[in-house]
TrEMBL record:
Top-level taxon of the source organism: Bacteria
Cofactor(s) this protein cannot do without: Mg(2+)
Species per Swiss-Prot/TrEMBL record: Streptomyces phaeoluteigriseus
Domain Alpha-D-phosphohexomutase alpha/beta/alpha: start-end pairs: 7-136, 157-256, 266-371
Gene3D superfamilies per the UniProt record, alphabetical: Alpha-D-Glucose-1,6-Bisphosphate, subunit A, domain 3, Alpha-D-phosphohexomutase, C-terminal domain
Protein name in UniProt: Phosphomannomutase/phosphoglucomutase
Keyword Manganese attributed: no
Alpha-D-phosphohexomutase C-terminal domain span: 376-450
Amino acid sequence: MAADLSQIVKAYDVRGVVPDQWDESLAELFGAAFAEVTDAEAIVVGHDMRPSSPGLSGAFARGAVARGVHVTEIGLCSTDQLYYASGALDLPGAMFTASHNPAQYNGIKLCRAGAAPVGQDTGLTQIRALVETWSESTGPEPAAQPGTITRADTLKDYAAYLRALVDVTSIRPLKVVVDAGNGMGGHTVPTVFEGLPLTLVPMYFELDGTFPNHEANPLDPANLVDLQKRVREEGADLGIAFDGDADRCFVIDEQGDPVSPSAITALVAARELARHGGKGTVIHNLITSWTVPEVVKENGGSPVRTRVGHSFIKAEMARTGAIFGGEHSAHYYFKDFWNADTGMLAALHVLAALGGQDTPLSALVAQYDRYAGSGEINSTVDDQTASIATIRSTYGPRPDTTLDELDGLTVTTPDWWFNVRPSNTEPLLRLNAEARDEATMRKIVDEVLALIRG
Protein backbone atom coordinates (compact mmCIF):
# COMPACT_ATOMS: atom_id res chain seq x y z
CA MET A 1 0.00 0.00 0.00
CA ALA A 2 1.26 3.45 -0.89
CA ALA A 3 1.52 5.80 2.06
CA ASP A 4 -1.02 8.64 2.18
CA LEU A 5 1.22 11.56 2.98
CA SER A 6 -1.31 14.29 2.19
CA GLN A 7 -2.36 14.47 5.83
CA ILE A 8 1.11 14.58 7.40
CA VAL A 9 3.36 16.53 5.02
CA LYS A 10 2.59 20.15 5.85
CA ALA A 11 3.87 23.41 4.38
CA TYR A 12 6.94 23.53 6.63
CA ASP A 13 7.32 20.10 8.23
CA VAL A 14 6.03 16.56 8.67
CA ARG A 15 3.48 16.09 11.44
CA GLY A 16 0.84 13.49 12.32
CA VAL A 17 -0.48 10.90 14.76
CA VAL A 18 1.79 7.94 15.58
CA PRO A 19 1.27 5.13 14.62
CA ASP A 20 -2.08 5.84 12.90
CA GLN A 21 -0.76 8.25 10.26
CA TRP A 22 2.94 7.38 10.22
CA ASP A 23 5.42 5.07 11.90
CA GLU A 24 9.07 3.97 11.95
CA SER A 25 8.88 2.31 8.52
CA LEU A 26 7.83 5.64 7.01
CA ALA A 27 10.44 7.50 9.07
CA GLU A 28 13.11 5.26 7.52
CA LEU A 29 11.90 6.21 4.03
CA PHE A 30 11.95 9.90 5.02
CA GLY A 31 15.58 9.48 6.08
CA ALA A 32 16.50 7.95 2.75
CA ALA A 33 14.59 10.64 0.84
CA PHE A 34 16.18 13.44 2.88
CA ALA A 35 19.61 12.04 2.04
CA GLU A 36 18.69 11.91 -1.64
CA VAL A 37 17.21 15.42 -1.90
CA THR A 38 19.95 17.16 0.08
CA ASP A 39 22.69 15.10 -1.65
CA ALA A 40 24.51 15.22 1.68
CA GLU A 41 27.50 13.17 2.73
CA ALA A 42 26.56 13.67 6.38
CA ILE A 43 23.57 14.87 8.42
CA VAL A 44 22.72 15.55 12.07
CA VAL A 45 19.60 14.14 13.79
CA GLY A 46 18.01 15.01 17.16
CA HIS A 47 14.74 14.36 18.95
CA ASP A 48 12.48 15.59 21.76
CA MET A 49 11.07 13.73 24.78
CA ARG A 50 7.97 12.20 23.18
CA PRO A 51 7.72 8.43 23.70
CA SER A 52 7.82 7.80 19.94
CA SER A 53 10.73 10.13 19.22
CA PRO A 54 13.75 7.83 19.83
CA GLY A 55 12.32 5.08 17.62
CA LEU A 56 11.33 7.43 14.80
CA SER A 57 14.64 9.32 14.80
CA GLY A 58 16.58 6.05 14.90
CA ALA A 59 14.64 4.75 11.92
CA PHE A 60 15.27 7.99 10.02
CA ALA A 61 18.99 7.64 10.72
CA ARG A 62 18.98 4.04 9.43
CA GLY A 63 17.29 5.18 6.23
CA ALA A 64 19.98 7.81 5.64
CA VAL A 65 22.81 5.41 6.52
CA ALA A 66 21.50 2.88 4.00
CA ARG A 67 21.91 5.56 1.33
CA GLY A 68 25.57 6.02 2.25
CA VAL A 69 25.16 9.05 4.51
CA HIS A 70 27.07 9.50 7.77
CA VAL A 71 24.74 10.44 10.64
CA THR A 72 25.59 12.35 13.81
CA GLU A 73 22.94 11.66 16.42
CA ILE A 74 22.74 14.31 19.14
CA GLY A 75 19.87 12.62 21.00
CA LEU A 76 17.60 14.63 23.27
CA CYS A 77 17.64 18.29 22.27
CA SER A 78 15.50 21.36 21.72
CA THR A 79 14.72 22.39 18.15
CA ASP A 80 17.04 25.39 18.38
CA GLN A 81 19.77 23.09 19.71
CA LEU A 82 19.36 21.05 16.51
CA TYR A 83 19.60 24.28 14.50
CA TYR A 84 22.78 25.10 16.40
CA ALA A 85 24.25 21.72 15.47
CA SER A 86 23.24 22.19 11.81
CA GLY A 87 24.89 25.61 11.79
CA ALA A 88 28.02 24.79 13.76
CA LEU A 89 28.66 21.50 11.95
CA ASP A 90 27.45 22.89 8.59
CA LEU A 91 25.24 19.84 8.05
CA PRO A 92 21.64 19.26 7.03
CA GLY A 93 19.52 18.39 10.06
CA ALA A 94 16.36 16.59 11.15
CA MET A 95 14.55 17.31 14.42
CA PHE A 96 11.90 14.86 15.62
CA THR A 97 9.21 16.81 17.45
CA ALA A 98 5.57 17.82 17.19
CA SER A 99 6.30 21.02 19.11
CA HIS A 100 3.18 21.98 21.10
CA ASN A 101 0.86 19.31 19.69
CA PRO A 102 -0.68 16.64 21.98
CA ALA A 103 1.24 13.52 22.99
CA GLN A 104 0.00 11.21 20.23
CA TYR A 105 1.54 13.44 17.55
CA ASN A 106 5.09 13.51 16.26
CA GLY A 107 6.84 15.15 13.33
CA ILE A 108 10.06 16.14 11.62
CA LYS A 109 11.47 19.64 11.16
CA LEU A 110 14.07 19.55 8.40
CA CYS A 111 16.82 21.98 7.45
CA ARG A 112 19.73 22.16 5.06
CA ALA A 113 23.28 22.93 6.16
CA GLY A 114 23.47 26.13 8.15
CA ALA A 115 19.93 25.65 9.47
CA ALA A 116 18.39 26.80 6.15
CA PRO A 117 14.71 25.79 6.21
CA VAL A 118 13.25 22.93 4.17
CA GLY A 119 9.61 23.50 3.22
CA GLN A 120 7.28 22.77 0.33
CA ASP A 121 9.20 25.02 -2.06
CA THR A 122 12.67 24.08 -0.82
CA GLY A 123 12.75 20.30 -0.91
CA LEU A 124 9.81 18.93 1.09
CA THR A 125 7.69 18.31 -2.02
CA GLN A 126 10.49 16.23 -3.57
CA ILE A 127 10.99 14.32 -0.31
CA ARG A 128 7.28 13.51 -0.18
CA ALA A 129 7.29 12.30 -3.80
CA LEU A 130 10.21 9.94 -3.15
CA VAL A 131 8.61 8.51 -0.01
CA GLU A 132 5.35 7.93 -1.88
CA THR A 133 7.17 6.19 -4.72
CA TRP A 134 9.27 4.00 -2.45
CA SER A 135 6.29 3.06 -0.28
CA GLU A 136 4.69 1.52 -3.39
CA SER A 137 7.77 -0.59 -4.14
CA THR A 138 10.48 -2.44 -2.28
CA GLY A 139 12.02 0.85 -1.23
CA PRO A 140 15.15 2.72 -2.30
CA GLU A 141 18.26 0.99 -3.59
CA PRO A 142 20.87 0.77 -0.83
CA ALA A 143 24.22 2.44 -1.40
CA ALA A 144 27.25 0.31 -2.26
CA GLN A 145 28.90 1.59 0.90
CA PRO A 146 26.58 2.35 3.84
CA GLY A 147 27.19 5.33 6.08
CA THR A 148 27.95 5.34 9.78
CA ILE A 149 26.25 6.55 12.95
CA THR A 150 28.16 8.51 15.56
CA ARG A 151 26.81 10.12 18.70
CA ALA A 152 27.61 13.58 20.00
CA ASP A 153 26.48 15.80 22.88
CA THR A 154 26.09 19.41 21.74
CA LEU A 155 24.28 20.84 24.78
CA LYS A 156 27.25 22.57 26.41
CA ASP A 157 28.51 23.97 23.10
CA TYR A 158 25.01 25.22 22.29
CA ALA A 159 24.75 26.93 25.67
CA ALA A 160 28.21 28.51 25.33
CA TYR A 161 27.36 29.80 21.85
CA LEU A 162 24.18 31.50 23.06
CA ARG A 163 25.90 32.98 26.09
CA ALA A 164 28.54 34.51 23.82
CA LEU A 165 25.81 36.43 21.95
CA VAL A 166 24.35 38.18 25.04
CA ASP A 167 26.31 39.84 27.83
CA VAL A 168 24.74 38.41 30.98
CA THR A 169 27.86 38.64 33.15
CA SER A 170 26.95 41.83 35.01
CA ILE A 171 23.19 41.52 35.53
CA ARG A 172 21.73 42.02 38.99
CA PRO A 173 20.41 38.97 40.87
CA LEU A 174 16.99 37.94 39.57
CA LYS A 175 14.42 35.39 40.63
CA VAL A 176 12.94 33.65 37.58
CA VAL A 177 10.26 30.99 37.39
CA VAL A 178 10.56 28.79 34.30
CA ASP A 179 7.71 26.53 33.12
CA ALA A 180 9.14 23.93 30.73
CA GLY A 181 5.78 22.20 30.31
CA ASN A 182 7.54 18.81 30.63
CA GLY A 183 9.22 19.70 27.34
CA MET A 184 12.78 20.24 26.19
CA GLY A 185 13.24 23.46 28.17
CA GLY A 186 13.72 21.17 31.16
CA HIS A 187 16.75 19.75 29.37
CA THR A 188 18.33 22.97 28.10
CA VAL A 189 17.57 25.63 30.74
CA PRO A 190 19.78 24.24 33.55
CA THR A 191 22.85 24.24 31.29
CA VAL A 192 22.17 27.58 29.58
CA PHE A 193 21.42 29.37 32.88
CA GLU A 194 24.25 27.71 34.83
CA GLY A 195 26.43 30.20 36.69
CA LEU A 196 24.17 33.21 36.12
CA PRO A 197 23.06 35.31 39.13
CA LEU A 198 19.60 33.78 38.97
CA THR A 199 17.43 32.08 41.55
CA LEU A 200 15.77 29.53 39.27
CA VAL A 201 12.36 28.18 40.26
CA PRO A 202 11.72 25.23 37.93
CA MET A 203 8.24 24.08 36.97
CA TYR A 204 7.55 20.83 35.13
CA PHE A 205 11.20 20.23 34.17
CA GLU A 206 10.70 16.44 34.10
CA LEU A 207 10.87 15.31 30.47
CA ASP A 208 7.51 13.69 29.80
CA GLY A 209 6.04 13.59 26.32
CA THR A 210 2.60 12.72 27.69
CA PHE A 211 2.38 16.27 29.14
CA PRO A 212 0.79 15.36 32.50
CA ASN A 213 0.45 18.95 33.79
CA HIS A 214 -0.74 21.00 30.82
CA GLU A 215 -0.23 21.19 27.07
CA ALA A 216 3.18 22.55 26.12
CA ASN A 217 1.58 25.38 24.16
CA PRO A 218 2.05 28.74 25.90
CA LEU A 219 0.17 30.51 23.10
CA ASP A 220 -3.01 29.27 24.81
CA PRO A 221 -3.56 31.45 27.92
CA ALA A 222 -4.89 28.43 29.84
CA ASN A 223 -1.38 26.94 29.78
CA LEU A 224 0.13 30.03 31.44
CA VAL A 225 -2.12 30.01 34.51
CA ASP A 226 0.20 27.83 36.64
CA LEU A 227 3.20 30.00 35.81
CA GLN A 228 1.37 33.25 36.52
CA LYS A 229 0.25 31.94 39.91
CA ARG A 230 3.76 30.76 40.80
CA VAL A 231 5.38 34.08 39.82
CA ARG A 232 3.05 35.91 42.20
CA GLU A 233 3.54 33.36 45.00
CA GLU A 234 7.32 33.46 44.70
CA GLY A 235 7.54 37.24 44.35
CA ALA A 236 9.66 36.52 41.28
CA ASP A 237 11.07 39.14 38.93
CA LEU A 238 9.67 37.33 35.89
CA GLY A 239 8.41 34.05 34.50
CA ILE A 240 9.37 32.29 31.27
CA ALA A 241 7.38 29.56 29.52
CA PHE A 242 8.71 27.36 26.72
CA ASP A 243 6.74 25.25 24.28
CA GLY A 244 7.33 21.52 23.85
CA ASP A 245 10.44 21.72 21.68
CA ALA A 246 11.59 24.94 23.42
CA ASP A 247 12.02 27.03 20.28
CA ARG A 248 9.46 29.62 21.49
CA CYS A 249 9.47 31.53 24.76
CA PHE A 250 6.70 33.51 26.46
CA VAL A 251 7.35 36.03 29.22
CA ILE A 252 5.35 36.85 32.37
CA ASP A 253 6.07 40.07 34.31
CA GLU A 254 6.49 40.38 38.09
CA GLN A 255 2.76 41.02 38.51
CA GLY A 256 1.92 37.74 36.80
CA ASP A 257 0.73 39.38 33.59
CA PRO A 258 1.77 38.08 30.15
CA VAL A 259 4.08 40.33 28.15
CA SER A 260 3.05 40.71 24.52
CA PRO A 261 5.40 38.88 22.13
CA SER A 262 5.34 42.07 20.06
CA ALA A 263 6.79 43.94 23.04
CA ILE A 264 9.51 41.29 23.36
CA THR A 265 10.18 41.62 19.62
CA ALA A 266 10.59 45.39 19.99
CA LEU A 267 12.81 45.05 23.09
CA VAL A 268 15.11 42.49 21.46
CA ALA A 269 15.16 44.48 18.20
CA ALA A 270 16.43 47.55 20.08
CA ARG A 271 19.13 45.46 21.76
CA GLU A 272 20.22 43.76 18.53
CA LEU A 273 20.38 47.12 16.73
CA ALA A 274 22.58 48.44 19.54
CA ARG A 275 24.86 45.40 19.12
CA HIS A 276 25.14 46.16 15.41
CA GLY A 277 25.99 49.83 15.76
CA GLY A 278 22.47 51.21 15.41
CA LYS A 279 22.08 49.91 11.87
CA GLY A 280 20.35 46.96 10.34
CA THR A 281 17.13 45.52 8.98
CA VAL A 282 14.56 43.94 11.29
CA ILE A 283 11.85 41.66 9.92
CA HIS A 284 8.39 41.56 11.51
CA ASN A 285 5.25 39.83 10.37
CA LEU A 286 2.10 41.77 9.59
CA ILE A 287 0.27 40.94 12.83
CA THR A 288 2.94 42.33 15.14
CA SER A 289 2.13 45.59 16.88
CA TRP A 290 2.67 49.03 15.35
CA THR A 291 5.19 49.39 18.17
CA VAL A 292 7.70 47.09 16.45
CA PRO A 293 8.45 49.18 13.33
CA GLU A 294 8.31 52.34 15.45
CA VAL A 295 10.96 51.07 17.86
CA VAL A 296 13.10 49.77 15.01
CA LYS A 297 13.10 53.20 13.35
CA GLU A 298 13.71 54.98 16.67
CA ASN A 299 16.83 52.84 17.14
CA GLY A 300 18.24 53.50 13.67
CA GLY A 301 17.00 50.34 11.97
CA SER A 302 14.91 49.58 8.91
CA PRO A 303 11.73 47.53 9.51
CA VAL A 304 10.52 45.11 6.82
CA ARG A 305 7.00 43.70 7.02
CA THR A 306 6.33 40.16 5.84
CA ARG A 307 3.75 37.38 5.82
CA VAL A 308 3.10 35.18 8.84
CA GLY A 309 5.19 32.00 8.94
CA HIS A 310 8.80 31.09 9.61
CA SER A 311 9.62 30.29 5.98
CA PHE A 312 8.68 33.85 4.96
CA ILE A 313 10.62 35.40 7.85
CA LYS A 314 13.73 33.33 7.12
CA ALA A 315 13.54 34.04 3.39
CA GLU A 316 13.30 37.79 4.01
CA MET A 317 16.15 37.65 6.51
CA ALA A 318 18.34 35.93 3.94
CA ARG A 319 17.27 38.33 1.18
CA THR A 320 17.80 41.52 3.19
CA GLY A 321 20.66 40.44 5.46
CA ALA A 322 18.44 41.31 8.43
CA ILE A 323 19.94 41.12 11.91
CA PHE A 324 16.74 40.03 13.68
CA GLY A 325 13.18 38.95 13.04
CA GLY A 326 10.15 38.48 15.28
CA GLU A 327 6.65 37.06 15.07
CA HIS A 328 3.67 37.66 17.33
CA SER A 329 3.59 33.87 17.91
CA ALA A 330 6.82 34.27 19.97
CA HIS A 331 9.24 32.99 17.37
CA TYR A 332 12.44 35.06 17.38
CA TYR A 333 15.06 34.82 14.61
CA PHE A 334 18.69 35.96 14.75
CA LYS A 335 21.25 36.59 12.02
CA ASP A 336 23.94 35.39 14.43
CA PHE A 337 22.02 32.12 14.82
CA TRP A 338 21.96 31.26 11.11
CA ASN A 339 18.67 33.20 10.69
CA ALA A 340 16.99 30.45 12.73
CA ASP A 341 14.55 30.89 15.58
CA THR A 342 15.62 30.43 19.19
CA GLY A 343 13.42 31.22 22.16
CA MET A 344 16.36 30.67 24.49
CA LEU A 345 18.37 33.51 22.99
CA ALA A 346 15.35 35.82 23.27
CA ALA A 347 14.99 34.77 26.93
CA LEU A 348 18.64 35.66 27.58
CA HIS A 349 18.04 39.10 26.03
CA VAL A 350 15.08 39.67 28.37
CA LEU A 351 17.16 38.62 31.39
CA ALA A 352 20.03 40.89 30.32
CA ALA A 353 17.70 43.85 29.71
CA LEU A 354 15.89 43.42 33.03
CA GLY A 355 19.05 42.67 35.00
CA GLY A 356 20.88 45.63 33.52
CA GLN A 357 18.63 48.22 35.20
CA ASP A 358 16.60 48.63 38.37
CA THR A 359 12.96 48.92 37.28
CA PRO A 360 10.59 45.93 37.30
CA LEU A 361 9.80 44.14 34.07
CA SER A 362 6.32 45.69 33.78
CA ALA A 363 7.88 49.17 33.71
CA LEU A 364 10.67 48.11 31.36
CA VAL A 365 8.32 46.68 28.72
CA ALA A 366 5.75 49.49 28.98
CA GLN A 367 7.77 51.52 26.45
CA TYR A 368 7.43 48.60 24.01
CA ASP A 369 3.69 48.04 24.52
CA ARG A 370 2.02 51.20 23.28
CA TYR A 371 -1.29 50.08 21.79
CA ALA A 372 -4.29 47.88 22.57
CA GLY A 373 -4.17 44.54 20.80
CA SER A 374 -6.80 41.84 20.48
CA GLY A 375 -4.63 38.78 20.18
CA GLU A 376 -5.65 36.16 17.63
CA ILE A 377 -9.37 35.34 17.45
CA ASN A 378 -10.43 32.30 15.40
CA SER A 379 -13.81 31.83 13.76
CA THR A 380 -15.10 28.77 11.93
CA VAL A 381 -16.48 29.72 8.51
CA ASP A 382 -17.88 27.74 5.59
CA ASP A 383 -16.44 29.99 2.87
CA GLN A 384 -13.27 31.87 3.76
CA THR A 385 -13.07 33.67 0.42
CA ALA A 386 -16.64 34.96 0.63
CA SER A 387 -16.15 36.20 4.18
CA ILE A 388 -13.02 38.12 3.24
CA ALA A 389 -14.81 39.58 0.20
CA THR A 390 -17.60 40.85 2.47
CA ILE A 391 -15.10 42.51 4.77
CA ARG A 392 -13.23 44.04 1.82
CA SER A 393 -16.40 45.57 0.36
CA THR A 394 -17.45 46.90 3.78
CA TYR A 395 -14.19 48.70 4.55
CA GLY A 396 -12.91 49.41 1.05
CA PRO A 397 -14.83 52.62 0.27
CA ARG A 398 -14.05 54.34 3.58
CA PRO A 399 -11.88 57.46 3.63
CA ASP A 400 -8.51 57.27 5.41
CA THR A 401 -8.55 53.49 4.99
CA THR A 402 -5.94 51.44 3.14
CA LEU A 403 -6.28 47.77 2.23
CA ASP A 404 -3.55 45.29 1.35
CA GLU A 405 -3.50 41.57 0.66
CA LEU A 406 0.05 40.58 1.51
CA ASP A 407 -1.39 37.84 3.74
CA GLY A 408 -5.17 37.63 3.88
CA LEU A 409 -6.67 41.12 4.14
CA THR A 410 -5.25 43.97 6.22
CA VAL A 411 -7.30 47.12 6.75
CA THR A 412 -5.46 50.15 8.17
CA THR A 413 -6.50 53.62 9.33
CA PRO A 414 -4.52 56.21 11.33
CA ASP A 415 -6.16 54.96 14.54
CA TRP A 416 -6.48 51.19 14.10
CA TRP A 417 -5.76 48.19 11.90
CA PHE A 418 -6.94 44.63 11.59
CA ASN A 419 -5.88 41.57 9.62
CA VAL A 420 -8.03 38.60 8.64
CA ARG A 421 -6.18 35.50 7.38
CA PRO A 422 -7.53 32.11 6.33
CA SER A 423 -6.05 29.02 7.95
CA ASN A 424 -4.26 26.73 5.49
CA THR A 425 -5.38 23.57 7.28
CA GLU A 426 -8.76 24.30 8.89
CA PRO A 427 -12.00 26.14 7.92
CA LEU A 428 -10.99 29.10 10.09
CA LEU A 429 -10.51 32.82 9.72
CA ARG A 430 -7.94 34.36 12.08
CA LEU A 431 -8.56 37.95 13.20
CA ASN A 432 -5.92 40.21 14.76
CA ALA A 433 -6.66 43.86 15.55
CA GLU A 434 -4.94 46.80 17.21
CA ALA A 435 -5.94 50.36 18.06
CA ARG A 436 -4.67 53.40 19.91
CA ASP A 437 -7.01 52.63 22.82
CA GLU A 438 -8.89 49.64 24.24
CA ALA A 439 -12.39 50.91 23.46
CA THR A 440 -11.63 51.46 19.77
CA MET A 441 -9.98 48.05 19.49
CA ARG A 442 -13.03 46.35 21.02
CA LYS A 443 -15.35 48.23 18.67
CA ILE A 444 -13.38 47.15 15.58
CA VAL A 445 -13.21 43.53 16.76
CA ASP A 446 -16.98 43.46 17.34
CA GLU A 447 -17.63 44.97 13.90
CA VAL A 448 -15.42 42.49 12.05
CA LEU A 449 -16.63 39.46 14.00
CA ALA A 450 -20.22 40.43 13.19
CA LEU A 451 -19.30 40.33 9.49
CA ILE A 452 -17.46 37.02 9.84
CA ARG A 453 -19.95 35.21 12.06
CA GLY A 454 -23.16 36.82 10.80
